[in-house]
Write a structure and sequence with these properties.
Layout (H helix, E strand, L loop, with lengths): L1 H39 L4 H16 L3 E7 L5 E7 L11 E3 L3 H9 L3 E3 L22 E9 L2 E10 L7 H44 L5 H16 L3 E8 L4 E7 L4 H4 L4 E2 L3 H9 L3 E3 L11 H7 L3 E9 L2 E10 L7 H53 L6 H24 L4 E3 H15 L6 E7 L4 E3 H22 L6 E10 L3 E8 L16 H12 L4 E7 L2 E9 L1
Parallel strand pairs: 14-16
Antiparallel strand pairs: 1-2, 1-6, 2-3, 4-5, 5-6, 7-8, 7-12, 8-9, 10-11, 11-12, 13-15, 16-17, 17-19, 18-19
Helix pairs in contact: 1-2, 1-4, 2-4, 4-5, 4-9, 5-9, 9-10, 10-11, 10-12, 11-12, 12-13
Length: 557
Amino acid sequence: LDARTAELKAAQTRIHEMEHAHDERNAEGEALRRIGEAMGSLFDLEEMLKAVAGVAVQVTGTDSSQVYLFNDAHDTLVLRAVTDGSGEVIGKLRLKVGEGLTGWVAKHKEPVMLGHHAHQDARFKFVPELQEDKYQSILSVPLIYRGEVLGVINVRTEKEHEYTQTQVRLVQSIASQISGAVENSRQYRKLEKRSSQLSALSEVSKTITSDLYLEEILQLIVAATADSMSFKICSLMLLDDDKQELVIKATQSKSKDYNKKANVKLGESVAGRALAEGRTITVYDLKHSEEYATPDLARREGLSSLASIPLLVKNKKIGVLNCYTEKPHRFTDDEISVLSALGSHAAIAIEHAKLMVKSAIIQEMHHRVKNNLQQVASLLRLQMHYVGERSVEQVLNESLNRILAIASVHELLAREDLDIISVKKIAEQILQATAQSILAPSKHIAMKIEGPDILLPSAQATSVALILNELVQNAVEHGFGAGMDNGEIRISLAEEPKFLTLTVANDGTPLPDGFDIRKTDSLGLQIVESLVRGDLQGKFTLTNEGERTVASVLFAK
């Protein structure tokens, strides 16, 4: 009977143990179900980690939970979720691998269980923001995905506590599920980043065959690169071949300090070396780098890391693409590969744009030369009808001066960057040519220019050059003929809101009484009248004003 009683008690004990184990399994299953629901209902990683940390506390019966994940460089653990009201340190609190209990678990890839006086463990690191000294126990489990540690999850109690196998299994299961979710999120971000990078490459590639101006292409490249790869500042520096300096030509940054950044000599600083050596150079910390020429600027602008990518076309040095990050960042091989591809496409696009500009300039010059030759031919035909009794030398000199007036516009066009010409410079050249080729040595005629400078497009400038040439030549021939060896020719320029006025005045022989410009047989004045009315759509007058003869041309802007 006693034996039967003992067997019965043993059986009852086993039944209770099995029931307890069954209850634990059910509770464990329910806990895992809740974890799964928390993870499945949230797509944002931060929200998911926060929810899982909260559920971990509930299902394990502990007082606090923390989740740490490695940063992109995989050298630092960053606090990403916490349940005990220390939310302000999320994303800011960092531990190195091997630092504190959490760092030790990440380094050794194995869990740690301490039931009491956890803060007295030799591996423990006190973090004031987390008030960890009030917790007696800790269970710390690594987040491992296919052998790679992605982070660590901790649960803690304020009272001494020996963790059960069920609690350990629960936290390990939670760690396993978090690892899978974190890896999925990481892969998704990689795909998203790659998609964005390929989009940037596509945008830059399109510029190669576009008809955009160079400035527009440069701006598109820096904007696409900065947006697709989340850089704080992106800039393009092009090489000035004459000075052998890199000059900022485009950036998406609005910072006045950065836009005023000094030019960089080829071979100096990071950008200069990258282009000189033909290789990408990266700097992890600009603020304390001896290589970077302006660490003070980096501190003011909040710049941390830099990648300088040389722009080359068949070993020809074009410039540098500079990419700055706000936080310290180690550029990966993939990032360098994408940036190098961007740099190659950018260099080709820039060269293509320059060739397009040269082609456009050649076409424009062809058009101008053709028009001017037609104008010269028309002037020579007119000259044939007005030869009269003048010598061949006189006729040729007049024609030569007209051609030189047109040539002066071309000379100024070749010097200027823009397709606009200074009227004052045209006037200076015409007066100088007149003094050298028409004025006799015995004549002492002062020649002056007054008034503001006026800028005109090349077509109008050519007409104005011919007009000024004829009016100055007319003043010399008719105002300072025989017996008039001294005097002044004055060119005046005036600009009003809607009109421009050019006058050529001289104090030589006045116009004869009853002079009518419409009845004159002077070829020069006929040319002026034709150019003013036909090309400038303006008005020409020639009158005596006091002791001066004044030729005036008025035309709309």
